[in-house]
Amino acid sequence: MISIQGKGVSTGVAIGPLYIYRRAKSTIRRYKVEDKEIEWARFKAAQMKAIEQLGLLAEKARAEAGDDAAFLFETHQMMAEDVDYEEAIQSGIKEDGLNAEAVVTDVGAQFAEMFANMDDAYMSARAADVKDVSGRIINILSGVVQGGIDSDVPVILASDDLAPSETVQLDKSKILGFITAGGSGSSHTAILARTMGIPAIIGVGDQVKEEHEGREVIVDGGTGNIVIDPDPDTREYMIQKRKEQLRKLELLNQLKSLPNITKDGQEIRVYCNIGNPEDVHAVLANDGGGIGLFRSEFLYLNCDDYPTEEYQFEAYKQVLSDMDGKEVVIRTCDIGADKMIDYFELPKEDNPALGNRALRICLNRPEMFKTQLRALYRASAFGKLSIMFPMVTSVWEVKEAKKLCEQVKAELTAEGKPYSDEVDIGIMIETPAAAVISDRLAKVVDFFSIGTNDLTQYTLACDRQNNDLGRFFNAHHPAVLRLIKMVCENAHKEGCWCGICGELGADLELTETFLSIGLDELSVSPRSVLPLRQKVRETTVSEVRDKLLDDLMSDMVTI
Question: 501 catalytic, yes or no?
């Protein structure tokens, strides 16, 4: 039996086989092959498998988002079996005697450059497509699994850490839990685990090794303990612990349909954070009052090129329809920093967290932004939509974004396309700048949603992704809590509602503080709804408000 200690970031106990996540190698080996016919057969098998995969993706896209979304994968299918493309690869293998991975890499780069240099905009855009097709074939040749998991049974997934573009590709039905070597409590792997309601442990370093793959492992997301090859007593103890957790969950289920109201009558809305339309099921199953944060950038991460208006419209429409009149707050594209996408072609930055990201990209690329806004406003006809802009630091940014909203509405009116004229506009408060001028920002928006992950990062000058900083990343820091209090007060003075959509919203140690501050809404992972409701219903705010607020503003608070 091997015991490993990490840091738990999503509670629960899971038992299953260990599976190590493998990603494509950045450097492809180049070598001469002994049998050219066998190597050519290797390529043909990989080509056929790629075409099959793309066909399945086209069918899935057509069912979920219509013909426009399916067309992308059908185009990739045609590229994979293009005669000129195939002949160039055949020449590299049979005449030059190179291995298939190296040849596909070279031919893919040549064809991508050829497309990129064409004057026709449509043909030029196909450069990204041929890169994607070549990458898919290379992954198959290299044994890299599309979707990350090649297993017939659900597994405990181990990795160094996962980028947002990787998490979006995972087959979620095959994941029982996560183990990562690095990461942080606010990493996307941790956020995904909490959304899925499964255990996750980070910061285990190099303790999980290749030879552990396939062996039975138990993870306890509450304690951060990992056991490989558990002995019978340990296994039985963890099974009983899991049963007890499920029993407590059943008790929490009795809170469904009850209001989020304190003993002395103060009510607060409890909404959910999601990353894709499929997460709505978890929101409804956990009795979330609405969606306080739909991270729309995951639609972009799931595409090989800028998602079309129709693709986005179908996704937003599905969420709004499924929520059946409950409020849905959709954050506009928040790409940049730790969420990078190749087809955006963003220049490398020394400090991307302070660079070109989120609303800054949208305002610099208005046509891309208007495509998303058109999809959003069209979808607003199917439910109660609110639009939220991320990474705001100035009033002028909000005004520019709202101008584009008005342009889009005028275009849709002229085209006779329906939309709701009752869409609220809000912003995320993620920077100290936005918090400090929240009195001015409240005059130009309908609501604030405080993104505590980034607000903590920027306030404390502490990288949220760096697990080595440990205790220095302290979301309970008085500076962060004072900013939250100030933002809430400024919002209420102008008649705006104010909520939290960062991970701090689910921190039960701070629920009484947030109620005392007077926040209107907390948006959390679906699994956190019922524990939070229980905490709210157990609280008498009038008994704790004065002490908590005095402690928060006291000069004697320990920092």
Answer: yes
For 337-350, give the DSSP string. TTB--GGG-PPP-S
- The single residue listed with the structure tokens 């996962």 is 162
Q: How far is CA 257 from the centre of its chain?
A: 28
pLDDT reading at 556 higher than 50: no
In a domain, 477, yes or no: yes
220's enclosing H/E stretch is strand 216-220
The CB-side HSE value for 177 (13 A sphere, CA atoms) comes to: 27
Whether residues 433 and 539 fall in one domain: yes
Amino acid at 300: Y
142, 170, 194 - which closes a domain:
142
Going edge to edge, which strands form the sheet with 13-20? 2-5, 225-228, 216-220, 13-20, 155-159, 175-180, 200-202, 7-10
Whether 267 and 340 map to the same domain: the answer is yes
Averaged pLDDT for residues 194-201: 88
Strands (E), 243-402: 269-274, 291-295, 327-331, 384-389
Of the pLDDT bands very low, low, confident and very high (cuts 50, 70, 90), residue 558 is very low
Residue range(s) defining the domain that contains residue 393 = 262-553
Tell me which of 333, 362, 488, 501 is the catalytic residue.
501
In a domain, 535, yes or no: yes
Q: Are 142 and 101 in contact (CB under 8 A)?
A: yes
Instruction: For residues 239 and 14, give the distance between their C-alpha atoms in angstroms, rounded to a whole number.
Output: 9
**Residues 139-176: pLDDT tens digits?**
888 877 666 687 889 999 998 887 766 776 788 888 99
pLDDT at 68: 65
558 lies in some domain? no
* CATH number of the structural domain spanning residue 382: 3.20.20.60
Distance between alpha carbon 163 and the CA centroid of its chain, in Å? 9
Q: In the predicted model, what is the mean pLDDT of the chain?
A: 89
What digits encode the pLDDT tens for the residues 212-227?
999 999 999 999 999 9
3-state helix, strand, coil in the chain (%, to 5): 50, 15, 35
The answer to whether residues 426 and 532 belong to one domain is yes
pLDDT-derived band of residue 59, with 50, 70 and 90 as boundaries? confident
Where b means 16+ CB within 10 Å and e means fewer, 128-158 reads bbbbbbbbbbbbbbeebbeebbeeeebbbbb
Name the catalytic one among 76, 188, 405, 488.
188
Q: Are 168 and 339 in contact (CB under 8 A)?
A: no
- CATH code: domain of residue 208: 3.50.30.10
pLDDT tens profile 15-26: 999 999 877 665
pLDDT at 164: 65
Last residue of a domain, one of 226, 251, 276: 251
pTM to 2 decimal places = 0.71
**Whether residue 458 sits in one domain with residue 361:** yes
486, 459 contact by CB (below 8 A): no
Query: What's the total number of domains in the chain?
Result: 3
Say if residue 363 is in the same domain as residue 388.
yes
Q: What six digits make up the tokens of 525? A: 């992972």
